[in-house]
Amino acid sequence: MLKSLQELGFEIEFHSHARAILSQDFPEALTELNEILKAVSIPIGEIVKSGGGEAAGTQRLRKALTSKGWKKGSFEIKKIVNGVERESISHEIDHVRRIEAWTLALEIEWNNKDPFFDRDLENFKRLHSEGAISAGIIVTRGTTLQAALKPSVLRFANENKIKSFVDLAQYGAKPPTDRQRREVEGRVARGNNFQKSWSSFFVSDKFGEATTHWRKLQDRVHRGVGNPCPLLLIGLPAKVIAF
Fold first, then answer.
1. pTM tops 0.85
2. Is the pLDDT of residue 51 over 70?
C-alpha cells in the first residue's frame, strides 16, 4: 500500500490498524493520495522566498486535494444533559474525505511550530473516540527533506552568485529583520562567505528542529499522543525540491 510513494523516498507509517482500515474501506482515497503526492514539487526559489503566510507548495497541495474531494471540514461535539447543553467543542480539519459512511481527516504540516502536531493528534483522537472519523493522516517534511534543506539552499546561493541581501531580494526573498541581518553579518565577519553564512542561518531559522518535521512527529506518536486513533504518517522526501 502506497508502495510507489515509498519507492520515491516517501516515509510511510501506519499505526493502530490504519493499514487494514485504509486498505479495506478507503482504497479510492489511497489512490487519490498516491497520485497527488507523487506530483508534489517545490522549486528551491519558493523555499528561499518563504516567510509569513502559507508556502506556495502547500497551497498547490491543498488545491490538488480539494479538487479530489478532500475539503475543509468542521466537526462540533456537544454534551447535553436533560436537554441542557453543558459542553460544545468545535474541531476544524483542513482536509476531510468522506466515502459512504466513512470519514478520513488529513492535516498538512509543512512548516509550523512543532506543538501543532500535538493539536492535530489530539483532535484526531477526540474525533475518532466520538466516531466522527475512521483515521487521521498527517503529511510533513520527511527525514531526507529536512536533511537536504541546508545543502539545497546553499546550492541555490552558489549557483545564483548570491553575495548580499540585495542579491537575495532579486529572487523575492523577504527583507531580513535586524536580528537576521546581524546574525548573518556576524558569521561573515568571522570568516565565512555570504552564501554559506546566509544559507546555514536561513534554514536553521526557518526550518529548525522546533518546527514540524518527521522526527518531531514520530517522537509524539511513539510516546502515544493521539493513540488509539488509527494514523497514517507521510514524510515528504528530498526529491520534492526542484531546481
1. yes
2. no
